[in-house]
Amino acid sequence: MNIKKITIMQMGNLAHVVIYRLGCLSGLCAVAIFGMQTAFAAQEPSDVITTLDKVKDEKSADLKHADAPICSPEALAQGIWHFSYDEASRADLVWSGFGDKRHANKKIHKDVKEPLLEMIKAAKKDKVDLYPASIFRSVKKQAWIVNDKIRKKQKPEQIYFVSSPAGFSEHHTGYAVDFYPVDEKFVKTKAYPWLLENAEKFGWEQTFTADYSKKSGVSEEAWHWRYVGDEYGKHLFEPRTCQSLIVDENRGVIDEIKDLVDDKSSN
């Protein structure tokens, strides 16, 4: 499906709106509309393919670039949700204490290192081994992973079921960890039930649970955990939603959305 950014505009108290044209079939077009939630109030318009249920304010790290989509258009075209995250700065990344300190995937956000070590230490007291196999991942590395799958002729739905598009991975933040083994075998280790029982005490949670998988279309991952034990982590991973609808190209969707937002902002 050919994805094309149509326009960026300002509408009333809606700070920025970015419209992506995902594709058309027999006059019906799928478009993605991204922007601040305030303009859409309680009822989302039927002409909008994608609205944001909850977003961070403009100062949030993942809204630094107003024209960056909140949900990946490529994944959303397959009915799969992947949300945008900015890459942590080099100044905020430190060696986790595991593996080769020269390897980027063993780096972690400086605010998350101690909480991770505390949890690993507690697990060890219970004779459970937690080993961080992969932590930070750059946007560039994520792009290589996805492009490699594209080169291998994998279908988009296969790719985005298990991999985030570049710019849409929690690993970019330095706040997410994949524990070894990074596959389905992790469920059978002592580590997984220990995490389910104890991780919350240390500020950690599993992102891709069975329930989240059903809702988002992303594969369940027992090994992937993120830190929500500080205000930044809670803010960073605040729940968000992508909703998909089909609109008729001949109805002038851009004008209708502008009119809708103007009406909402006058209330």
Task: Outline the structure in words.
- The chain has 267 residues and is α+β, with helices and mostly antiparallel strands.
- The protein has a domain at 88-239: Muramoyl-pentapeptide Carboxypeptidase, domain 2 (2-Layer Sandwich), CATH 3.30.1380.10.
- Helix content is 27%, strand content 19%.
- The protein contains eight helices and ten strands.
- The chain has helices spanning 73-76, 113-125, 139-151, 156-162, 191-198, 210-216, 231-236, 253-265, and strands at 4-11, 14-25, 28-35, 93-95, 107-109, 132-134, 176-179, 204-206, 224-227, 247-248.
- The strands form three sheets. The protein has a four-stranded antiparallel beta sheet. The protein has a four-stranded antiparallel beta sheet with strand order 6-7-9-8, with no helix packed on it. Strands 4-5 form a two-stranded antiparallel sheet.
- The longest helix has 13 residues, at 113-125.
- The protein starts with a strand and ends with a helix.
- The model is unreliable at 1-67 and 245-267 (pLDDT under 50).
Brief overview:
With 267 residues, the protein is an alpha+beta fold. The protein contains eight helices and ten strands.
User: What percent of the residues sit in helical stretches (DSSP H or I)?
Assistant: 25-40%
Overall mean pLDDT: 77
What is the fold named in CATH at topology level of the domain at 88-239? Muramoyl-pentapeptide Carboxypeptidase, domain 2
How can the largest sheet be summarized?
4 strands, antiparallel
Please tell me how large the radius of gyration is: 20 Å
Gap from first CA to last CA: 38 Å
Order of helices and strands: EEEHEEHEHHEHEHEHEH
Broad CATH class of the domain at 88-239: Alpha Beta
Alpha-beta classification: alpha+beta
Relative strand content: 15-25%
Shape assignment: globular
> Regions with pLDDT < 50 over 5+ consecutive residues?
1-67, 245-267
Strand order of the largest sheet: 1-2-3-10
